[in-house]
Amino acid sequence: MPSVPRGAWADGGLLPVSGATGRAAALQMRVSQVRAPTPIGYQRYVPSLSVVLVGRKRSVVGDDDQQWGREHFLITPVDLPVVAGVTEVEGDRGFVSVVWRLDPVVVGEVVASMSRSTAPLVEPPRLGTWTAPLADAFARLVGLLSAPEDVPVLFPLVSREVVLRLLQTEQAPRILAALDGDSVVARATALLNGRLDEAWSMERLAAVLTTSASTLFTRFKQATGMSPAQYLKRARLGEARRRMVVLGETAARAATAVGYRSASHFSRDYREAYGLPPAEDAAGAREAFAVAG
After folding, report:
1. CA–CA separation, 29 vs 52, rounded Å?
2. CB of 24 within 8 A of CB of 30?
3. Read out DSSP for 180-193?
4. So which domain of life are we looking at (predicted)?
5. d(CA 156, CA 151)
6. C-alpha angle with apex 85: 58 to 98, nearest 5 degrees?
7. Rounded to an integer, what distance in angstroms lies between the CA atom of residue 285 and that of residue 43?
């Protein structure tokens, strides 16, 4: 099974993250490195391609809970609430991942130039499987971190090739979902995230978006791997955790702010997502941040 080759980095190893930050930004890329496994926590993914270069991580998207490494990749076509953490590191390399933003303009240009439909009428698996052409193209994209002088010429070409190779995988429906920021799924996620404290049913959400409940559910599930209700719960829990950890709010106040009307319901959902009661988890997170700082 193809995977991203270690030689993706020009020296055959891994470029220190501290030296790659500025160059990564020029490539619409974020490089992350940790030295030890981490607890799972809430992460907000923008439309992007996520790749693990070294180590393994656990990602929970809706009901899909998987551990993965260099053998897979993850597409997030819209803003997506994910619970994730690092599960394995490799010696001095630790854990290294790359998140590359999917540019809807580039995706649109590549789609327009293709001569046939790229979207099968089935929901793709949550994790994508590398093909040899995709692994090769992505390796050259990452390799530009070590060749900044080549970026002006090669980045537009290589980025389009990566998108093309992605569209030739089973993840094509999710790539296409990132194309239109005004799609029903993008509008639904923006609405839910902007109004977390409101009571939403499938019927109300569909009515506000002027679409049918069945169309909304099908497209939302295909793009995100979650139902709108699952997405809303994950987004609410993530925002509540941010409020407790960053703003120092109590669990009760944070729960109310994101739309929970029952403290016991909030505590049960929170523990299911993060493994600890809200107050205990927030206290531990604040302590860890204090030590790291």
Report:
1. 13
2. yes
3. -TTSHHHHHHHHHH
4. Bacteria
5. 8
6. 85
7. 14
State whether 149 and 16 are in the same domain: yes
* Amino acid residing at 162: V
Measured distance CA(224)–CA(210) in Å, rounded: 20
Specify the pLDDT at position 117.
Answer: 56
**226 within domain boundaries:** yes
Q: What confidence tier does 159 reach under pLDDT thresholds 50, 70, 90?
A: very high
Q: What is the pLDDT of residues 62-75, one digit of tens each?
A: 778 889 999 999 99
Q: What is the mean pLDDT of residues 26-37?
A: 90
Q: Which helix (H) or strand (E) holds 228?
A: helix 228-246
pLDDT: which is higher, 126 or 257: 257
Contacts of 237 (CB under 8 A, 6+ apart): 42, 81, 258, 269, 270, 273, 274
Please indicate, yes or no, whether residues 203 and 165 belong to a single structural domain of this protein: no
Q: How many residues does the chain have?
A: 293
**CB contact set of 170 (below 8 Å; sequence gap of 6+):** 120, 124, 125, 128, 129
Average pLDDT over residues 185-190: 88
How far apart (Å, rounded) are the C-alpha atoms in residues 293 and 290? 5
Tens-digit pLDDT profile for residues 236-275:
998 999 899 889 999 999 999 999 999 999 999 999 888 8
Q: Give dist(CA 182, CA 217) in Å, integer.
A: 17
| Residue 59 counted as domain residue | yes
Of 20, 5, 14, the residue nearest 91 (C-alpha) = 14
Identity of the residue numbered 30: R
Where does a domain end: 177, 204, 238?
177
Pairwise CA distance, residues 121 & 108, whole Å: 20
